[in-house]
Amino acid sequence: MPRPRLLVSPARRLFSVRWTLFDVALAVGLLIASAQQHAEGVDAEWWVLALPPAAAIVIRRRWPLTAFLLASGAALLSHLDPYRGLDMIELAVPLTLYTLASGGRSRRTTAIVLASAVVGVAALSVFHVLITERADTAERTIVIKTADQYLADLAAKGVVVDPEMEAAIRSKPMEPEPSGPSVVGEAVAQAIGVILLFGLAVAVGDSLRSRRAHLVALEQRAVDLEREQHQRVALATVAERARISRELHDVVAHGLSVIVVQAQGAAAALDRHPDQAAEALQNVIATGRDSLADMRRLLDLVRRDPTEDPALAPPVGVAYLPDLIDRIRAAGTTASLVITGDPVPLPASVDLSAYRIVQEALTNTIKHAGRAAAVDVRLDFGPERLELEVVDDGAGGPAGEDGTGLRGIAERVSMLGGEWSAGPAPDKGFRVWAALPLEATE
Q1: Which residues pair with 356 in a beta bridge?
Q2: Most confidently modeled of 22-26, 272-276, 360-364, 385-389?
């Protein structure tokens, strides 16, 4: 599978071009400074050894390992001559090593390169000491032969040289200024300085690498947190939509069911019993107003936080079940409410869900059991849970088993961690039962 190609922004491309121009200017500046170190001028050999480090500085950001090998190889070749001094252009070696440590592929590669550089510097220092010692020995031999030749020339001229003078002539070239210890000390000091410079370059580069990695980790964490936040918002939105859908269904379905039943009764009694028709129409009006008020409160809750205005909180709960039963009775259905146990204050979520479950069960009774059906509502307050039971004596049957209302009941009970069941009653009619734990949190 091909790797996706990353899009480079114009700002980032401009930033890269600026750094490239900086590297070119740095390479040119080091070349000029290095050339000025040679008062006698520079030759073709110097250019051959100076251009590779300059090129390494230019390419170090894109190919750090190649740049280091190019710069270090040129520096090694130039210092095979032990009498050659350090040039400014050779700063390309620690610069490329720094770039490798800060932007290379791995720390392991950087460690291997640093160890190789240290070994190379040490080997080059030993080589310098050996070459210098051999040159000093050769210089002594030449001086001694010249002294012998000088004494022979004196003898040929008839000059008598006494033993003290001969010893002085011979001892002067045999005792040149001691160069061995000073050469070794200079080589060791120079090697230590170069090694410390390499170590400093690697330390600074590795510190920059760690900082970049930390920033990348922080950016990735911020991206992950933002994505998780979007996911939480999306889940909360879905949950809120489901809650609003349940509330709208409960409000609209119940109100319309009661209105339809009462409107049918009013239509049937319009000719023979006008007073009953008028009363049914008044109930229709009252039920419609109550449903509209409930819907308005629900929509207001969607638009703002209900804690800002307690008057917007929907006036539903177990305490309002008697009013609900009265509306059902006004629709022509015989209804009763029985409360057992010791009523205790309920959590808001349990209180609202209990009211909605009873409301939906009564709506199913009106829609499917018929006006002549009788329905019994029972609330049992237990020590750990609240049990609800709504049983009608109507026809019941499959028509009331697979509806949106029952799915809403299932969602409410599942959300609270309770139990529920719905189906035909043992004798006749339809039964809805639910148990809600009192420990439910709001």
Answers
A1: none
A2: 385-389
Of 14-28, 58-72, 135-149, 194-208, which gets the smallest average pLDDT?
A: 135-149
User: What does the alpha-carbon distance between residue 330 and residue 366 come to, in Å, rounded to a whole number?
Assistant: 12
Q: For residue 304, give both structure tokens.
A: 């703002």
User: Which residue's entry shows tokens 């109507």?
Assistant: 394
User: Are 256 and 287 contacting, i.e. CB atoms less than 8 angstroms apart?
Assistant: no
Q: What are phi and psi of 431, to 5 degrees?
A: -130, 130
pLDDT range class, residue 135, cuts 50, 70, 90:
low
What residues contact 270, with CB distance under 8 A and at least 6 apart? 277
Q: Is the Cβ–Cβ distance between 61 and 96 less than 8 Å?
A: no
Residue pLDDT, tens place only, 247-277: 666 666 666 677 776 677 677 777 777 777 7
Would you list the domain boundaries of the chain? 10-226, 319-442
Bigger pLDDT: 24 vs 277: 24
Question: Residue 435's pLDDT band (boundaries 50, 70, 90)?
Answer: very high
Residue 181 half-sphere exposure, CB side, CA atoms within 13 Å? 2
What per-residue string of b and e applies to 144-179 under the rule 16 or more CB within 10 Å gives b? eeebeeebeeeeeeeeeeeeeeeeebeeebeeeeee
Q: pLDDT digit string (tens) for 386-405?
A: 999 999 887 544 444 555 67
Amino acid at site 422:
A
Pick the CATH number of 319-442 from 3.30.565.10, 3.40.720.10, 3.40.1170.20, 3.40.50.2300: 3.30.565.10
- List C-alpha distances in Å: 180 to 83, 121, 172, 176, 219: 15, 20, 18, 11, 58
Q: What is the mean pLDDT of the chain?
A: 76
- Pairwise CA distance, residues 324 & 359, whole Å: 7
* 334-341 sheet: strands from edge to edge: 334-341, 374-381, 385-392, 430-437, 419-424
- 3-state SS class at 378: strand
Question: Ramachandran region of residue 429, left (φ > 0), alpha (ψ -120 to 50) or beta?
Answer: left
